[in-house]
Amino acid sequence: MSSSHSTIIFIATLIVLATSVFAKEYIVGDESGWTLDIDYQAWAKDKVFIVGDTLVFNYISSAHNVIKVNGTGFQQCIGSSSNGTLTSGRDVIPLQTPGRKWYICGFGKHCELRKMKLVITVLPQTMVPAPSPVTTSTSSKLVVPTVCGFVVALFGSVLLLLV
Ligand SMILES: [Cu+2]
Questions:
Q1: Which residues surround ligand 1, an ion (CB under 5 A)?
Q2: Cα separation, 54 vs 44, whole angstroms
Q3: Per-residue tens of pLDDT for the chain, all 163 residues
Q4: Whose CB among 36, 63, 109, 141 lies 3.0–4.6 Å from 113's, allowing a Cys bridge?
Q5: From CA 5, how far away is CA 95, in angstroms rounded?
Q6: What distances in angstroms separate CA 75 from CA 44, 78, 104, 140, one per listed residue?
Q7: Burial of 121 (0-12, 13-18, 19+ CB in 10 A)
Q8: How many A from CA of 63 to the centre of ligand 1?
């Protein structure tokens, strides 16, 4: 086996390990689940979502659903049918790509009037290891600088909390 193959396998193993170690499952709304009149922005505010994590929406399937929308759909509470609507009552959504993710409930006016809307920002996994100058400068090229500044600040404060 050539050394480049070994390196690739080694890196792939590291990524898999990192994913399994750091991947978290977030129950949206915690024990309240996905329901009326929960402040989901408050719920999401202190959480750091990273690629590989999963979101779980728990709800009564006859009363709610989950529609993945874009920013406009989120603001106007309009779900596009092309993305499909999740209706199982326990929808597990893997966060596979970094960026903003928007979810709303499509029942009645649950999104407009009853706060059933959630927006989160998923961070790339390259942000996960302990920050070093090299990691930070490399990562900042991959994301919008303002987002990265926010991320670094957020990560720094999390580290402070952990120490
Ligand atoms: Cu609903």
A1: 64, 105, 107, 110, 116
A2: 13
A3: 456 667 655 655 555 555 556 699 999 999 999 999 999 999 999 999 999 999 999 999 999 999 999 999 999 999 876 667 999 999 999 999 999 999 999 999 999 999 999 999 999 988 555 555 444 444 434 444 444 444 444 555 554 555 5
A4: 109
A5: 29
A6: 17, 8, 10, 28
A7: middle
A8: 6
Using CA atoms of 4, 51, 123, 45 in order, give the dihedral in degrees to the nearest 10.
-160
Q: Give residue 110 CA to ligand 1 midpoint distance, Å.
A: 5
54-58 vs 25-27, strand pairing mode: parallel
Domain boundaries, the chain: 23-123, 127-163
The C-alpha atoms of residue 82 and residue 90 are separated, in whole angstroms, by 21
Question: How many CA atoms, within 13 angstroms, populate the side-chain half-sphere of residue 69?
Answer: 23
CA–centroid distance, 126 to ligand 1, in Å, is 35
Query: Which CATH architecture fits 23-123?
Result: Sandwich (2.60)
pTM for this model (two decimals): 0.66
